[in-house]
Amino acid sequence: MKSLIIAEKPSVGRDIASTLNINEKRNGYFENNKYIVTWALGHLVTNATPEQYDVNYKEWKLNDLPIIPNKMKTIVISKTKKQFSTVQSLINSTKVKDIIIATDAGREGELVARLILDKVHNKKPIKRLWISSVTNKAIKDGFNKLQDGRKFNNLYYAALARSEADWIVGINATRALTTKYDAQLSLGRVQTPTIQLVQMRQNEINQFKPQTYYTMKINAGGLTFQCTQPQSHSDKSVLENIKKEIEGQQGQIKSISRSHKKAYPQQLYNLTDLQQDAYKRYHLGPKETLNTLQTLYERHKLVTYPRTDSNYLTDDMVDTLKDRLQAIMATSLKDFAKRQMSQTFSPKQRFINNSKVSDHHAIIPTEVRPDISQLSQRESKIYMMIAQRYLENLMPPHEYEAIAIELEIGKQYFTFKDKVTTKLGFKAVYESNESVHKQVDKLQKGTMLNVSKIQIEQHETTPPSYFNEGSLLKAMESPQKFFDLSDKKHHKTLKDTGGIGTVATRADIIEKLFNMNAIESRDGKIKVTSKGKQILELAPQKLTSPLLTAEWEEKLLLIEQGKYDAHKFISEMKTFTKNVVNEIKESEQNYKHDNLTTTECPTCGKFMIKVKTKNGQMLVCQDPQCKTKKNVQRKTNARCPNCSKKMTLFGRGKEAVYRCVCGHTETQAQMDQRYKNKKSDKVNKKDLKKYMNKDEGIENNPFQDALKDLKF
C-alpha cells in the first residue's frame, strides 16, 4: 500500500518526487514502492456557473436575481479534465492507503486539494505537508513532520466559505448592475473599495489648494543653522524683520548636545512590501513581481514561500540562518555575508517573533546557492533585494552621534543638526563612511560665530501623490488610514485583518480593474476612469467600503479557529446579497457611456464603445450580452525604420496602418514589403552549405575559406 501525494503544480510535484526518489514516471504522476506523487494544475475543481444550475440563467435577466442555490455545486474545469481524471483514479486506487496534501500551505492551497477530495468522495485518511520552501531540505523536514489532515478542517471550511460567499455576492451584484444599466459593469467586495480608494486620493488632489510659507536659514562658522522661532511662517515680513534684526551681528553658542543613537534596518520582506519596493526601484508591476517570485520559489528554489503577510521568522529557524548566509556568499554580497558567519544568532534577534507569524514567515533566501548567470535580469534583481534585506537584518545596527547646536543672535534662536556615523553597521552594504564636520569638534558653549549669510526661502505645500501600482497595494493593506471611519472598532478590525484582499490576490485585483477600464495609469499615476466613477455612484454604498471585507476576514479567521459556524456566515451573505440586489433594482440612477462611438457593432448593430487597454485601445459592443470586440490600436514589436521605436498599429488586415511617435507612417503592404526585403538580404543556411560543399568543384573559393570553421 502506498501514500498518494497531491501537489498544487507539476513543478512542485517533480521537486517532491526528486527529493523522495520517486523516479518511475507515469502519465500525470510519479511512483515508487512507497509513494505516488501527482498534482493539480492550480484549481482542477471550481464553483459551478449559474447556467450549470439552470440553463435559463445563461441569459442575464434582472428578474432572475438573486440567484442563490440551496446547495453550492462544484464542477471539474474542462481545460484540466484529463489531469483531474488521473488524480481521481489514483485517489480511488486500491493500492493507495492514504492521501498527503502537499498543496501550498495556506487557505487557498487547502481549498485546491479539498475540492478535489470532496468531488471524488474520498474516505481515505488525510495527512498534511506544511512547508514554506521547496528545497530538498525543506521537503525532507516536512515529510518527517507530517500532520493529521483533520487539524486543517477549519482552514478548509473558511476557504470554502470565502469562495462561496464571493460567488454569491459577486455573481448577483455584477449581473444586477450589468442588466439594470445595460453596460459591462462589475462589482466585488475588494475591487469596488479599491476603486473608491483611488477616487478618494484623486478628490484630495483635485481639491488641494497650495499654501505659501517661508523659512529662514543662516550661515555661521561654516555651518547652516535653521531659524527655530518661528520654524516657518506664512507672512514673509515676519522673517524679514528678524533678518534686519540679526544682520551684521555675531551669534553665541548657547548649547551643544551630543547623543549616541542606533538605527535598525527595515523589516524582512513580506509580499506587499517587496512589491512596493520593486515598483519604486525598478518600476515592476505587482503582478510581475509576484510572477518573478513564484519562479524563484518553484523553479530555482532560491526564496521561501512568496504569498506571506509576515515580516518575521520563527525561533525554530535560528539554526538555518547561517546556511542561508552561506548561500548569499555566491553573490556580490559575499564579503558582507562572510563577516556575519562568525556571529552568534539566537531567538532574541529583532526579526524573530513566533506570535507575528501565522501561515508563513517573511520572504528570505533559502540555503540553495544561486547561480546569478542562470537568472533573468528581473529574477536577479528581486533575489538580490531579498538577499540584501535578509543580510542587513543579520548585521549590527547603524550607530551615529546626533549633534544639535543652539545659536543665539540677539533675541533670536537658530539650530544646527547633524548626524555623524560612528559605526556603519548594516548600512555598509550600500554606503561608505559619511564625512564628519571637523569644524563641529572645535566648537564649544559660549563660542562666538560671525553670521555670513541670511536666506529667506519660499515654499509651497504640496498635495499627496497619486497612487501608483506599488503605493496602491500598500493602501489596500491599510485602508483604515484613508477611509474616514467613525467607529474605532472598525478601524481596529481593518488593521487586524490586514486590509482588503490578501497578499496573494491584491495584484490580480489591480490588474482586473485596469482590464475592465475602471482605473487607468498615466505616467505612473493611477486615476479613476469615467466608468469607474459611475460604478461607485451606482454601487450600493456597503460595497464601496472596506468594512465589508474587514467583517468577512474577521469571521473567516474565527471559522479557521473553530469559533464561528461557516453555515451561519454563508446564511448572512445570502441575506446581504438579497439586500444588495433589491437596492440596485430599486435605483433610479442612469448610466452614461461617455466613450460611445458612431461605429456600429458588426454582430448586433448597436453602437460600440472605445475602451483603453494596457497596449492601446479597442472597440467593444455596448451590449454586455453581445461581447463583440474590435481592435482599434495596439502597440506592436515592429520597429520604426527612422528612430527604431515600437510602432502603433491602427486598424486590421490590409487596411491597417503603422504609425510612430516620430511621425513615420506606413501601410500594412509597405510593412510586409520592408520585412520581405530585409529577409531577402540574408543568406540562408541552405545556400551557405551549397557553397561549402567541396563537390561543387569551386576551387580557391574565398567565401568557402572564410566560412570553413562555422557550424550550421
Automatic annotation (TrEMBL):
GO terms for molecular function: DNA binding; DNA topoisomerase type I (single strand cut, ATP-independent) activity; magnesium ion binding. The keyword DNA-binding applies. Its cofactor is Mg(2+). Residues 2-135 form the Toprim domain. It catalyses: ATP-independent breakage of single-stranded DNA, followed by passage and rejoining. InterPro entries: Topo_IA (IPR000380), Topo_IA_2 (IPR003601), Topo_IA_AS (IPR023406), Topo_IA_cen (IPR013497), Topo_IA_cen_sub1 (IPR013824), Topo_IA_cen_sub2 (IPR013825), Topo_IA_cen_sub3 (IPR013826), Topo_IA_core_domain (IPR023405). Pfam families: Topoisom_bac, Toprim. It is an enzyme of class 5 (isomerase). SMART domains: TOP1Ac (SM00437), TOP1Bc (SM00436), TOPRIM (SM00493). The active site is at Y305 (o-(5'-phospho-dna)-tyrosine intermediate). Mg(2+) binds at E8, D104. GO terms for cellular component: cytoplasmic replication fork. Residues 152-581 form the Topo IA-type catalytic domain. GO terms for biological process: DNA recombination; DNA repair; DNA topological change. The record marks W60, W167, R175, R307 as: Interaction with DNA. Keywords: DNA-binding, Isomerase, Magnesium, Metal-binding, Topoisomerase. Its EC number is 5.6.2.1. Residues 186-191 are annotated as: Interaction with DNA. PROSITE patterns: TOPO_IA_1, TOPO_IA_2, TOPRIM. Releases the supercoiling and torsional tension of DNA, which is introduced during the DNA replication and transcription, by transiently cleaving and rejoining one strand of the DNA duplex. Introduces a single-strand break via transesterification at a target site in duplex DNA. The scissile phosphodiester is attacked by the catalytic tyrosine of the enzyme, resulting in the formation of a DNA-(5'-phosphotyrosyl)-enzyme intermediate and the expulsion of a 3'-OH DNA strand. The free DNA strand then undergoes passage around the unbroken strand, thus removing DNA supercoils. Belongs to the type IA topoisomerase family. This is DNA topoisomerase 3. It comes from Staphylococcus edaphicus. The lineage of its organism: Bacteria, Bacillati, Bacillota, Bacilli, Bacillales.
